[in-house]
Write a structure and sequence with these properties.
- Helices cover about 30% and strands about 15% of the residues.
- By secondary structure, it is an alpha+beta fold.
- Helix 5 links the parallel strand 7 (about 110-115) and strand 8 (about 135-140).
- It is flat and about 50 Å long.
- The relative contact order is 0.11.
Length: about 230
């Protein structure tokens, strides 16, 4: 559980389903929450990894016994950093970073729903950039056009793209978005993205420390600005 309020946030918990006590940690600033140089070495990170691996091992064992009743895990699908469907709740970035790492180690594709958190809502073009881990597939909408007209985009790595790139219909990914790549939507998106990238029109741009590569600030008008209020 992540509780947030004035002065920072905290991850707390008692004995959990993984059979061990969850660590208790907290932070005062956003920089501390996303300082993976320190947090990757924390006790909480180790507990996250152990719990995730236990769940994935159990799923793999069940699939080996009866793949019909317990199909193998096809992919990890989740929202980045903010759980929009649950009321824009903050998810501990360390948990998501660790989950993505473990899944990628096991060759489980990572699919991120970035409709709420992507396109600079949190200061970075993709919310996954704040986690320091690259997804295989990421989905965007709404903010692509500033909400003016509907448009949706699914971005993938070259490896995923090439899997559906072929000369015959059977090779294609046939089911796409209702509003994809139509001229008016693309024209509006091009203008909106240009404005998002301009610090004069978007004070919510991420500022990165050139020496450490760590984020220093995400402005004050985005999702984190609202959280800190």
């Amino acid at each position: 559980e992540v509780s947030c309020g004035v002065g920072g946030g905290k991850v707390t918990g008692g004995p959990d389903a993984w059979g061990q006590e969850e660590a208790t940690t907290g932070w005062i600033t956003r920089l501390q929450a996303f300082n993976f140089g320190t947090r990757d070495r924390s006790a909480l990170c180790g507990q996250y990894r152990a719990g995730i691996e236990q769940v994935l091992d159990a799923a793999a064992a069940a699939a080996a016994i009866d793949s019909v009743a317990a199909p193998p895990i096809a992919a990890l699908v989740m929202e980045s950093i903010l759980h929009g469907a649950g009321g824009m709740d903050l998810i501990d970035p360390l948990f998501q970073r660790t989950l993505m790492r473990v899944c990628k180690e096991r060759r489980i594709p990572v699919v991120l729903d970035e409709v709420f958190a992507g396109i600079w809502r949190l200061g970075a073009e993709g919310a996954w950039e704040l986690l320091g881990e690259t997804p295989d597939i990421a989905c965007y909408a709404k903010l692509l056009t500033g909400g003016l007209v509907p448009l949706a985009v699914t971005a993938t790595t070259e490896e995923v793209f090439d899997a559906f790139n072929g000369p015959v219909k059977e090779s294609a990914l046939l089911h796409g978005h209702s509003y994809t790549a139509y001229p008016i939507g693309c024209a509006v998106a091009a203008e909106a993205i240009s404005m998002f990238r301009d610090p004069k029109s978007n004070p919510n741009l991420e500022v990165v420390d050139a020496a450490t590569g760590l984020p220093l600030d995400w402005g004050g008008l985005g999702g984190f600005g609202a959280w800190e209020q």
